[in-house]
Design brief:
The protein is mainly alpha-helical. It folds into 2 domains: 139 residues, no CATH class; 207 residues, no CATH class. Helices cover 63% and strands 0% of the residues. The protein is built from 18 helices and no strands. It is globular and about 60 Å long. This is Transcription factor domain-containing protein. It holds the Pfam family Fungal_trans_2.
């Protein structure tokens, strides 16, 4: 699949091939929507620093896909991309307030490298996920903040930022720290292009769940730092906010409760299926949030019935998703959290089989890293005595889990 017009812009054959691969293979993996927004290829064509970042991401995924660095130059390209970013930063500093367009270009490039290092390249001496994270925060600060950029940017940048802030939140939850942005930011994020699929009738959004998860992360951080004390009214408020939601479908369901899930989907309209998918993703995150609430905030042990109730419900929700659905591209965080608390050998095997299947489809190194951490947790005899943060301490800070 060649992208129209790229060959006339002086791109080399390798760059053309990398952009084609990014467009057809990598970009769709970053979103659950069946009709994802257009990738930032025009920006890549116009600005070499974005082109290099796009090619690095594409070529790194191709290496994970087939195990071959076709021209042996992936590391060279990465170094060239980092040098180009440093050059652009120097240019921005030299131009000061006159560097109107450069920060937006840099933002695209650093966001792509952040995803590359967090999803594809997890080797400690190479990965710089945290550095790219700080770089994105700095660029957004230079541009006036997250919300002004979201309100004025094109869809592909909005989508990448929704991915960035989501990964920032999930990392904060796993590490037991505060996110970089307040809960109110999710209202603005939800108004633009996002990585999750939407309820076609606009009844509910994953952004509502992520907003409350952000509020809960800030509350947990205040408890850890001694700024607040545990309040049961707050706990009940979070319990209510994360009450699992279901899509009310318009199409009548078949009477037979034993009919397979594939058969049930055949009875639904396209709009109903879209809603069912959107609500299924929301429920996985709601159950995950409740596991965090009971474990990290309330301090309940792994085997407590309240914890295990939502571990099982979260896993059931994930396992009921059609294997061909793009929802599975973005349930790694719920699968990681629920899987780490799964106790029965059957549940653990179920989780391992699911992570292996998702890895086979996505070929993201981050999925393999989650699988390895879960296996380590399950084989550690003292895992039942670990706190929330101790449980996930084995996960490399370079890994993005979403």
């Amino acid at each position: 699949m060649q992208i129209a017009g790229l060959g006339r812009d002086g791109l080399g054959a390798r760059e053309q091939r990398a952009l084609d691969y990014f467009h057809g293979r990598v970009w769709p993996l970053l979103q659950t929507s069946e009709e994802p927004c257009a990738p930032p290829l025009p920006v890549a064509i116009q600005h070499r620093v974005v082109l290099l970042a796009t090619c690095v991401l594409a070529d790194s995924h191709r290496l994970l896909q087939d195990g071959k660095d076709h021209d042996g130059s992936l590391n060279t390209k990465r170094l060239e991309c980092l040098a180009a970013i440093r050059s652009e930063v120097d240019g921005c500093c030299a131009q000061g307030n006159n560097s109107t367009g450069l920060p937006h270009v840099l933002l695209f490039a650093v966001l792509l490298l952040h995803l590359h290092d967090g999803f594809m390249e997890l080797t400690g001496h190479v990965a710089s996920t945290s550095s790219h994270h700080k770089g994105v925060l700095a660029i957004l600060g230079q541009l006036g903040g997250l919300e002004p950029v979201l309100r004025t940017s094109q869809e592909s940048l909005q989508m990448l930022l929704s991915e960035f802030v989501s990964a920032d939140l999930t990392s904060a939850l796993l590490q037991g720290t505060a996110p970089s942005y307040p809960p109110a930011a999710w209202h603005v994020i939800d108004q633009g292009a996002v990585w999750w699929g939407r309820d076609p009738l606009g009844r509910y959004s994953l952004a509502f769940v992520l907003r409350e998860m952000s509020a809960m992360a800030f509350y947990h951080d205040s408890l850890v730092n001694g700024q607040s004390s545990l309040c049961m009214d707050e706990v009940r408020s979070f319990e209510e906010a994360f009450r699992p939601v279901y899509a009310p479908v318009a199409t009548p369901m078949p009477d037979s409760p034993s009919e397979p899930a594939a058969g049930l989907y055949q009875c639904l309209s396209e709009r109903d299926i879209e809603a069912v998918h959107a609500f299924a993703l929301m429920r996985t995150f709601q159950h995950t949030a409740l596991i965090f609430l009971y474990r990290a905030i309330c301090g309940l042990p792994t085997l407590h019935p309240l914890v295990q109730q939502h571990v099982r419900s979260c896993l059931d929700c994930i396992m009921e998703i059609e294997r061909s659905s793009k929802l599975l591209h973005c349930v790694i965080f719920p699968l990681c959290v629920a899987g780490a608390h799964a106790q029965s050998p059957d549940s653990q095997q179920e989780v391992l089989s699911m992570t292996n299947m998702i890895y086979d489809n996505m070929r993201f190194a981050s999925v393999k890293a989650v699988s390895q951490v879960l296996t380590s947790i399950w084989t550690t005899q003292s895992s039942l005595d670990l706190t929330w943060t101790e449980l996930f301490a084995q996960l490399s800070p370079h890994v993005l889990v979403l």
